[in-house]
Amino acid sequence: MAEKPTDRRASLWAIWAASAAFGTYFCMYGFRKPFAAASYTGADVWGIDFKTVVVSAQVLGYMVSKFIGIRVISEMPRERRAVALLSLIAAAELALVFFGLIPRPWNAACLFFNGLALGMVFGLVLSFLEGRELTEALVAGLCASFILADGMTKSVGTWLLGCGVPEVWMPCVAGLLFLLPLCIGVAMLTRIPIPSERDIQARTARQTLNQSERRGLMLRYAGGLTLLVLMFLLVTIARSIRADFAPEIWRGLGAEVPPSIFTRSETCVAIGVLVINGLSVYIVDNRRAFFVSLATCCLGFATVIASLLARQAGMLGAFSFMVSLGVGLYLPYVAMHTTIFERLLAMTRERGNLGFLMYLADAFGYLGYVTVMLTRQFWTANEGFLQFFLAICWVTTGLAFLSVVFCWRYFAARQPAVTAAPAVEGAA
After folding, report:
1. Of 397, 404, 406, residue with least CA distance to 305
2. Is cis: bond before 105, omega within 30 of 0?
3. What letter would DSSP give residue 132?
4. What is the pLDDT of residues 73-132, one digit of tens each?
5. Which residue would you say has higher pLDDT here, 229 or 7?
6. CA–CA separation, 426 and 300 (whole Å)
7. N or C: which end of the chain has fewer CB within 10 A?
8. How far apart are CA 87 and CA 79, in angstroms?
9. Contact call for residues 166 and 104 (beta carbons, < 8 A)
10. Interatomic CA distance for residues 268 and 367, integer angstroms
11. Is 324 helix (H, G, I), strand (E, B) or coil?
């Protein structure tokens, strides 16, 4: 049977939306991650190596931005998103300029402001994609951007260092390389149509939330949301250490670290993670899709444990280990972005938006990561960085698995929603 014109038009817009979101967020990473390719040796701060200081400074700003974003993203009207995106990127690049101008160690503060500006970009991009029948597929494309960009932008940073760009100026130069394509991506986002009536019937209308509405949503599902946020916090710690200290982990595994290694490993991770999470778009029933996504998280934790055990047994080389561990950590991380909160709103028919729930989880996730980074020097003694990372993986994976099990029981005990979908009026 020939495809209907309306279906063909919807498919074209879906491709457009996925491309716009992927391109915009991929380019955002050009302002965030290239600095991590540098070693910043020879300048400790209060006994803490400078690399840990600058990573912690940026993540601290990112975390503060997530807490601010709980309100800002949940209340942001559609017509202001593009201007907000471009303003935040401009502020982030300006912070990188000052990172090059200000001497060490004071320039670490500039990365705090860089993270503060970039922390709300994801929520703004996500707001263009939620509440649609194809949301999982669209957000999977968005998540592909930060998995691939994490490796590719480090490769760009390593390449710039090899070209003789100084460490302090490399992040600023890298950002400039991504500026024009980012602006094109934002322009494409503004052309994405609002969700159709069919989307709203399938997933509910997405609306802004004021403070009392946010509090009410939290209280109605406090037990389940707390467990989901705890799981996400634990996964964020391990995933972020793997991302921000990838060169150190690769060297600890005894591998050479050419610029291409980050791109190759994260491409493999992205393919595995996004195929598995993206398939949930074919599950029509929202409640079933929600529980399948929780099972996906458990699959990720099992993959992490298997990778750690295989590494101990000498069955995995450095590349295979980093890829399999990355797949295991990103499966639950991406499931939260693509499916869990999206289907939670859809199955409960609650008034709300995906940005609020994601920023709630992100804020506490990065709070946990900052805490670990700031205290790492005091509880790892003289262990190498690889051993510290492996210990974090064991602890966080075990606790995160228990969180998902109890979360499953919490929501399984609640009756499916039977209320009608909200009216179209007020949709995001």
Report:
1. 397
2. yes
3. S
4. 988 888 899 999 999 999 999 999 999 999 888 888 999 999 999 999 999 999 998 888
5. 229
6. 37
7. N
8. 14
9. no
10. 29
11. helix
Using CA atoms, how far apart are residues 155 and 257, in angstroms rounded to an integer? 10
Domain ranges of the chain: 15-412
pTM value is 0.80
Phi, psi of 38 (to 5 degrees): -85, 155
Of residues 358, 410, 381, 421, the one with CA closest to residue 143: 358
The Cα–Cα gap between 150 and 366 comes to 17
Rounded CA-CA distance 306/328 in Å is 9
Residue 421: burial class (beta carbons within 10 Å; 0-12, 13-18, 19+)? middle
Instruction: Say how far residue 97 (Cα) sits from the centre of its chain.
Output: 25
Please report, for residues 67, 157, 351, the alpha-carbon distance to residue 81 in angstroms, rounded to integers and kept in the order given. Answer: 18, 29, 20
* Under 8 Å between Cβ of 350 and 217: yes
Residue 378 is which amino acid?
F
Task: Characterise 131 by phi-psi region: left (phi > 0), alpha (psi -120 to 50), beta (else).
Answer: left
Q: In whole angstroms, what is the distance from residue 236 CA to residue 245 CA?
A: 14
Q: Which residues, 6+ apart, have CB-to-CB distance to 373 below 8 Å? A: 52, 55, 56, 59
Q: Is 106 exposed, middle or buried (0-12, 13-18, 19+ CB in 10 A)?
A: exposed
CA distance 149 to 21: 13
Buried b (16+ CB within 10 A) or exposed e, 391-419: ebbeebbeebbebbeebbebbeeeeeeee
Q: Report the distance separating Cα 102 and Cα 279, nearest Å.
A: 48
Residues 6+ apart with CB under 8 A from 44: 50
Q: Which residues pair with 45 in a beta bridge?
A: 48
Domain 15-412 is classified in which CATH homologous superfamily?
MFS general substrate transporter like domains (1.20.1250.20)
- 293 neighbors 335 (Cβ within 8 angstroms): yes
